[in-house]
Amino acid sequence: MFESGGTAVLLWGLLFGSIGFGFFIYGKKQKAVVPLIAGIVLCIIPYFIVNVYALVVAGVVCMAIPFFIRI
């Protein structure tokens, strides 16, 4: 049931979770809301998206958001 990507989903999830943790720490230290929220979302989305291609697209979009939205 959950074997849509297997190892690929696991590795992409690890990568996006690590980047999300970095965004979270940066947003917390700089008191910046957008990187903080993007970091939380990047850490959570691998739990809910099991398709490899959808995970990569969602992860790249979430990583790009702090560069385009400044609050």
The number of distinct β-strands equals 0
Judging from the principal axes of the Cα atoms, what is the shape?
Answer: elongated
The secondary-structure class comes to mainly alpha
How many angstroms separate the termini? 40 Å
Cα gyration radius (Å): 12 Å
| Strand content bin | under 5%
Count of domains: 1
Count of helical stretches: 3
Give the low-pLDDT segments. Answer: none
Write down the overall mean pLDDT: 92
What is the chain-wise order of helices and strands? Answer: HHH
* Quaternary status: single chain
Helix content: over 70%
Largest sheet: none
What's the SSE blueprint?
Elements: H1 7-30, H2 33-48, H3 52-68
Helix pairs in contact: 1-2, 1-3, 2-3
Describe the structure.
This protein has 71 residues and is mainly α. It has one domain. The chain contains three helices and no strands. The chain has helices at residues 7-30, 33-48, 52-68. Helix 1 packs parallel to helix 3. The longest helix has 24 residues, at 7-30. The N and C termini lie far apart (40 Å). The mean pLDDT is 92.
Summarize this, please?
The chain is 80% helix and 0% strand. The protein has helices at 7-30, 33-48, 52-68.
